[in-house]
Amino acid sequence: MSPATDALGHPLAGPEDTAPGADVAVRFSHVSKTFAGASHDVQALRDVTLDVPVSSVQGIIGYSGAGKSTLVRMVNGLERPTSGRVWVEAQEVERLRGSGLRDLKKHTAMVFQSFNLLETRTVAANVAMPLVLDGVAVDERDARVEEVLDFVGLADRSQAHPGELSGGQKQRVGIARALVRQPPILLCDEATSALDPATTTQIVDLLDRVNREFRTTIIVVTHEMDVIKDLCDSVAVMEDGEIVESGAVLDIFNHPRHPATRRFVEGVVPSTPPASLTESGEGGDVWRLVYSGDGAGRPLLSQLVRDFHLEVNILAATVTEIRHHTVGHMVVRMSGDPGDLLRGAERLRANGVQVSAEGSRS
Fold first, then answer.
1. Domain boundary residue among 226, 241, 267?
2. Which of 51, 80, 320, 334 is the most exposed, having the fewest neighbouring CB atoms within 10 Å of its CB?
């Protein structure tokens, strides 16, 4: 979406066009990025606007080439926008040079997919590297390294070398190195993509601890919706350099609107039954039900059978945890008197269940 303009075509300033307040850690305002190519230019970002609240975990998800890594590299100045503005802690990144840009990078540590460890250095030496570059005294440096290695669960591996570690342990070293400066903002660029599912869960739990215990703002770039589900407060879905949908994770999972979002959500919470079931010749209405919280554990469907004499055929059902909330998705075929069906739907909605019609068969 292009920014609003006045009668002369000049952009109108909106809240996102000014430096953010203390409650926003990072602001992207109408950010576009074009890379010059040998045969043609490539537009990696198109008019991206997004606020990341302080102490939140913001997910950015998209398939390869969506522009998500380019966007996150704007935060620490590794990439500069072709147009638009980026603020970090009320400082406009484009205006920073020299010591200002170096200070920004100390405030915005990054965790990489490929770990980026020095193979000839010990774990402790890898973690200490940012403090070495800062000229921190040895005693203070060693104490801080010991502290963060204990936090990530590697206190007993400080003198090991990266080649002696598993992939999950290497990523814990990467996280410890990122935390050693105590940055208020942590950038994670596909930090779990090289890990197996069990190790991914451990790294997600560790990042969740970082956010909860240190109140660190975390921006997570990923193509894994499971990571978004378990770690993030909000998510922005990117496609072809644009944010096509964004919002609270629970809302996005419950009400995905864009086709790209629906594809991601369906990969984690499959709730679409085979067409052979929904399009069969059986009578009745097909309803999609979404419920969370207390509704997830209550026998609401059996109450409809009892109180309204409805027939219920469950076509698909899943229950999952989304950012500490239990959420259920169900597709059911409902048969009965039209008045009773209406009252049944009203009963479900009164109990916090979202009901939408998927179709009917007479």
1. 267
2. 80
Whole domain around residue 179: which residue ranges?
15-267
Contact between 115 and 173 under an 8 Å Cβ cutoff? The reply is yes
Neighbours of 266 (CB within 10 A): 14
Asked if residue 114 and residue 20 are part of one domain, the reply reads: yes
- Domain assignment of residue 4, yes or no: no
Find all residues with CB under 8 Å of 70, minimum gap 6, and list them: 33, 44, 45, 79
Instruction: Tell me the per-residue pLDDT of 186-240, one tens digit each, with 9 for 90 and over.
Output: 999 999 998 999 999 999 999 999 999 999 999 999 999 999 999 999 999 999 9
Whether the per-residue pLDDT at 105 is higher than 50: the answer is yes
Q: What is the distance of C-alpha 275 from the center of its chain?
A: 31
Structural domains of the chain, count: 2
Q: φ, ψ for residue 216 (rounded to 5)? A: -75, 135
* Domain closes at, from 232, 267, 302: 267
- Record the tokens describing residue 228, joined without a space: 């978004």
pTM listed for this prediction: 0.85
- The string of pLDDT tens digits covering residues 38-72 is 888 999 999 999 999 999 999 999 999 999 999 99
d(CA 267, CA 287): 21
> Do residues 99 and 200 share a domain?
yes
The conformational region for residue 304 under phi > 0 = left, psi -120 to 50 = alpha, else beta, is alpha
CA dihedral 145, 151, 153, 157 (to 10 degrees): 10
In a domain, 5, yes or no: no
CB 311 within 8 A of CB 282: no
Q: Strand order of the sheet with strand 311-322? A: 311-322, 325-335, 284-292, 354-361
Structural tokens at position 18: 């000014």
